Amino acid sequence: MRFELPAGFAGIRVVGDVHGESGPFRDAIAGAEAARLFVVQIGDLTDHGPDAPGVLAAMFGLMDRGAGLFLLGNHDHKLRRALLGQPVKARAGGLDETLAQLEGHPDRAALAARAIEAIARAPAWLRWRDVLFVHGAFHTSMLNEPAPPDAGARRPDGLVSRALFGQTIAGELTDAGYPVRVLDWVDYIPAGLTVYCGHDNRSIGGRPHIAQGKRGGRAVFLDTGAGKGGHLSWIDLKA
Fold first, then answer.
1. What is the pTM assigned to this prediction?
2. How far apart are CA 157 and CA 60, in angstroms?
């Protein structure tokens, strides 16, 4: 899916995984609006941090002003399923915290309804000029195939699975029970293309990690641990 920057914006502020950190997210939004930057948040709005409802409200307000959007992340997809009453595994400190925060919020019903609707149509990947935004990992087919318009409302498979969960090794799990993820996909990014992603905190010294691929492209990992003891990162791209 190719993205056209709306008129009046001087560029894009790419914001990494927020994970319930509403204060830093609002700071990122305020700075973007002051600089006339459109916000592209690369997925995982909620879980782990202290204020998932505040993050959702800030994101929806941004969307209503026509000043930003968010990509589909695996935590967003899982939240939607939970809000619909579908069975999900809620790990301690993650989705269970988000659901508890929403349950006690005065705008719970409105936020839940909006989340169900917005997550259903969130793009799984987005192309802008010589940049591709995706939550988990890139695949060369994303350069030619548009993201499904209902990616957030269906079972992730194919390219959507790659976009949400990254590149995994089938059947292999870490000691914590998570799929083993690899970065072979970075070597397939063509020269001249930069992929901005999150999903894994691979930061070096608290800064976004940049990986150069064998074909000349590069990946910028923007998850620097927000909601998990780290901080929220963003990068500004001028039009």
1. 0.95
2. 27
Residue 61 counted as domain residue: yes
The pLDDT confidence band at residue 231, using thresholds 50, 70 and 90, is very high
Is 4 domain-assigned? no
**CB of 97 closer than 8 Å to CB of 48:** yes
Q: For the chain, what is the domain count?
A: 1
pLDDT at residue 1 in the model: 67
Report the CATH number that the domain containing residue 198 is assigned in CATH.
3.60.21.10
Answer whether 152's CB lies under 8 Å from 121's CB.
Answer: yes
Structural domain that includes position 184? 11-238
